[in-house]
Amino acid sequence: MNTNSMQSPPSSSNKPRFSRTFLLISLAAVCTLFAFSTTTILPSTTTSSQSSLRRSLSSLKFRIANNVADVTTPVQYSDTAVYWHIHKAGGTSMKRYYSCLDMVLSSHVGITEGHEHDKYLQVWTNKDGYRYVNVDTTKEIGILRAKSLKLAERHLADVVFVTYPALTTHIFQQQFKGRFFTMFRHPIERTVSEFYYRQVANWEPVAGVFNPNLAQQTI
What we know:
This is Sulfotransferase domain-containing protein. By secondary structure, this protein is an alpha/beta fold.
């Protein structure tokens, strides 16, 4: 299969945006609305800093109310499924699961194989037959690019994977909302998993993640 081939997603008449399996998994996942809590303790800094923080929180509260779908309401065709990928909490397995269901994903893979230079929003297929939108919604610069290319309005992604849920709300709008879901894992289990993962993860591109010296330590 040509790894650089571009293709459009199937039409809505041939492929439902939310399969029954997808809905069951979504209902089983924990709603991430709690991740958007605007309750905070203002730091004892200058009045200017506090005012700036309040404006930021007010803006976030507006985006949540306007751009994020209420998971207790029926799914709309205009909604986009957004999975909050919490590190070491099953996110990688979820990506593989949805890819095996032949869904189009938006993740860090989207800009690999030279697709970070694409000028237009498109779907491409990798050598394994998995399909991706050519944006990276796991990083701030990728979120801004996805917004400018109208990811929500184009409906090219079946599932958008993100690591910054609050920032991701910028992508959506009242007519094209994001419907968030996730899976949580006990924080101690996550920490232990990461401890052993970093001992062997020599494939990680981020400097400092792979650390074989951790094998000499105990927990």
